[in-house]
């Protein structure tokens, strides 16, 4: 395959703990990578978690790897054997397995709430007691849909997202890239806040869902493409394909 990304500078905005594999893939293909995490994940102390008796719940849904890691860092005890653990995608499922938990239901590609809600197992939720493990605030689609299908839902918020501070040098470096990789709406909004320069909206922007693309276009980004799914392989493949189509 050679080095199809040689001479291409790519900005990776994922939180540091989640970016390693993606960075390595890009470098292997010849890209010059600039890491600028635009979301700082701060775990919430378990003493501040909402008091939820997990022994009385039927289903525990983890919306991200950060949700898994923050939950496992603070949770003490053992989950009931009859409780179903649910992952919104492959990356979250992998994190659950690595944390010693069983994955009973996993959303297929392209992952996310919509993919999970489309599964047959998630249709009749009558009298199901569901805990959604997530960060502070977030989309309401998952909970609202499950409630409409008969479930009782509770949020267990185990981390918060903060905007990192960077000096002018890091911002200038961000403006020097050819590609931006952004994997969440919050990340996109934070990037605009951190860089605060309209020039960033002229870069090639890769996002992992149509929803993020719509937000990006609304913010004024001019060149937005969507990967096939949220995986690192799909993200890198999309950049390589666009480059080949444009003779780069």
Count, helices: 9
How much of the polypeptide forms β-strand, as a percent range? 15-25%
Helix content: 25-40%
SS content category:
alpha/beta
Order of helices and strands: EHEEEHEHEHEHEHEHEHEH
Low-confidence stretches: none
What do you see in this structure?
- The mean pLDDT is about 95.
- The protein has helices spanning about 15-30, 65-75, 90-100, 115, 140-150, 170-175, 185-195, 210-220, 230-245; strands at about 10, 30-35, 40-45, 60, 85, 105, 130-135, 150-160, 180, 205, 225.
- The chain is of the alpha/beta class and about 250 residues long.
- About 35% of the residues lie in helices and about 20% in strands.
- It has a six-stranded mixed β-sheet.
- The longest helix is centred in the last third of the chain and has 14 residues, at about 230-245.
- The chain has nine helices and eleven strands.
- Helix 1 crosses helix 9 and helix 2 (about 65-75) runs parallel beside helix 3.
Which tags fit this structure?
five-stranded parallel sheet; six-stranded mixed sheet; 21% strand; 35% helix; alpha/beta; 9 helices; single chain; 248 residues
Brief sketch in words of this structure:
This protein has 248 residues and is of the alpha/beta class.
């Amino acid at each position: 395959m050679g080095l199809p990304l040689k001479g291409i500078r790519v900005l990776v905005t994922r939180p540091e703990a989640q970016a390693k594999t993606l960075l390595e893939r890009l470098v292997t293909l010849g890209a010059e990578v600039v890491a600028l995490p635009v979301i700082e994940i701060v775990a919430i102390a378990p003493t501040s978690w909402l008091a939820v008796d997990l022994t009385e719940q039927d289903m525990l849904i983890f919306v991200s790897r950060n949700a898994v890691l923050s939950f496992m860092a603070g949770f003490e005890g053992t989950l009931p054997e009859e409780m179903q653990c649910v992952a919104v995608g492959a990356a979250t499922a992998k994190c659950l397995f690595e944390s010693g938990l069983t994955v009973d239901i996993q959303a297929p590609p392209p992952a996310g709430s919509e993919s999970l809600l489309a599964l047959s197992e998630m249709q009749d939720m009558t009298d199901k007691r569901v805990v959604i493990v997530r960060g502070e605030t977030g989309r309401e689609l998952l909970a609202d849909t499950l409630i409409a299908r008969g479930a009782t839902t509770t949020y267990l918020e185990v981390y918060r997202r903060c905007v990192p501070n960077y000096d002018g040098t890091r911002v200038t470096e961000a403006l020097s890239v050819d590609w931006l990789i952004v994997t969440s709406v919050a990340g996109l909004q934070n990037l605009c806040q951190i860089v605060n320069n309209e020039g960033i909206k002229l870069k090639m922007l890769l996002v992992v869902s149509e929803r993020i693309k719509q937000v990006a276009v609304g913010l004024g980004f001019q060149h937005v493409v969507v990967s096939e799914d949220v995986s690192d392989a799909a993200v890198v493949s999309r950049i390589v394909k666009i480059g080949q189509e444009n003779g780069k």
